[in-house]
Amino acid sequence: MRDLHTYFFNRWGVTKAVDGVSFSLREGETLGIVGESGCGKTMTALSLLRLIPKPAARIVSGEIILDGEDIVPKSEKEMRKVRGRKISMILQDPQTSLNPVFTIGNQLSEALGIHQRSDRKDMINRAINALRNVRVAAPESRLDDFPHQMSGGMKQRVIGAIAISSSPKLIIADEPTTALDVTIQLQYLRLLKDIQAETGLAIIFITHDFGIVARMCDRVAVMYAGRIVEDADVRDLFNKPSHPYTQALMASVPQMDRTDRLFAIEGQPPALYALPEGCRFADRCPHVRDICRREYPPKIDIDTDHMTHCWMFDSAWKDQPEESASSQQAVE
User: Fold this and answer.
1) Which pTM value belongs to this model?
2) 3-state secondary structure labels for all residues of 155-170
3) Are residue 257 and residue 199 in the same domain, yes or no?
4) Residue 29 sits in the same domain as residue 151
5) What residue spans of 165-209 are helical by DSSP H?
6) How many domains is the chain built from?
7) Tens of pLDDT along 270-308?
8) In terms of residue numbers, what domain contains 273?
9) Residues 171, 40: one domain?
10) How do strand 69-70 and strand 65-66 relate by DSSP bridges?
């Protein structure tokens, strides 16, 4: 993804949901995207699939390069060959992802039939194999079940079976463990890892849970107010988080040995239809200086495969006076 901008045009003006997002993903790699609710994680994923809500939302500019080809200019008819076959998505709530009036077999066969034309017997065998691949017990009997006859964990496995049924190159997992209890979460994450090892899938994992990030991801992109503020190898991010927002997110994670008051990030993210000129985290940042409010920080390489957008790592920041308490109160 290169400098992608996805905007909403509504009565409030222009809402910049995705505002210049760039990242790359290799075969067999897992990229985690983390950030507060409303920062643009899911809209970035929907932009990849070209499933943004129209006519309000539009991809204004940028490129999405898949196998050397930009998919942004593709027509809707051409995108139907990309969705499912090359890029699939596992949605957050399996209860709303599955149609309650059709059997599991119907819904799996439909997904398979769109991309792989074959007779009914072959389609049923493919559906059974897809369920077997995601470790569903007795898959033959499960084909005739309706979604309400399955547990939450089982339904999430069915969603995974539909996503991988056409052997895509990339799966986007949008908080797939939110509706699952802790033990089922662990099983599901292990299942995704096993499937990735067997097939070479690339995975984009959208989550709020840093425990999942540490377990699943090779690299992490931290989003804030429509932009990626830090991108790093997962070990580097945990060992030396650079952006103040990343540091604040990690400090907010509850720890068993902590007995004092939990840390909370003061304030609220800016409205995406009225973004400030400078750094979007400036009003909540403990290190803010004058230049932070005037200009958005450039991309700064902290290390190999570790970049951030923060003035603290630029020589211009050191020459700036610190904000006084009165000026901070005036902003608030």
Assistant:
1) 0.88
2) HHHHHHHHHHCCCCCE
3) no
4) yes
5) 182-199
6) 2
7) 999 999 999 999 999 988 888 889 899 999 999 888 999
8) 244-331
9) yes
10) antiparallel
